[in-house]
Write a structure and sequence with these properties.
about 180 residues, two-stranded antiparallel sheet, binds zinc ion, about 10% strand, two-stranded antiparallel ribbon, mainly alpha
Length: about 180
Amino acid sequence: MDHAFPCGTLSLDFAGTLRARRNAAPAEMLGSPDRLDSWFVESGMLDTAPGADRVDLHLAVEVREAIYALVAARLDGARLPASAVAVVNGHAAGPQITLRLDGDGATRTGSVAQGLTALARETVEILGGVVGALLRECSRPECTQVYLDRSRGHRREWCSMRTCGNRVKAAAYRARVHAAG
Ligand SMILES: [Zn+2]
């Protein structure tokens, strides 16, 4: 797998494909049309690569940045930026992924535009619904991954326990050992 899906909500994982956003040099995980293709397949949204080109990549990054801008505004308690609302609404109205019953299973195929529609629709459902109140940003300051805190008691601190949670806990443990020794 080339890509990480830490948070369990695809549109928010997609927003996280620009990692460590507040660092001087954030890490771009969608650096080429091939990387965008592999994101759609590894995420399980599409069974076959949509065959992204440069224009698709440009549109995908535009959608990603719109999703992040909307979530960041919500987390700040700020008004949703109109330009990002327009981008997400525009894509949400597009054609949906093609679902086919195929023997015992289902196949999911489509273009990049269809994949972006699914991500935009999920974003509308999050920001336009009660679930938007569960938006959080990972507590590891460098991370900047956003997620929905569906945990009981709403105490989820990390985008992913396996990555950020363990990193922070291991660092705290080392600090304690160092202080004691
Ligand atoms: Zn994190």
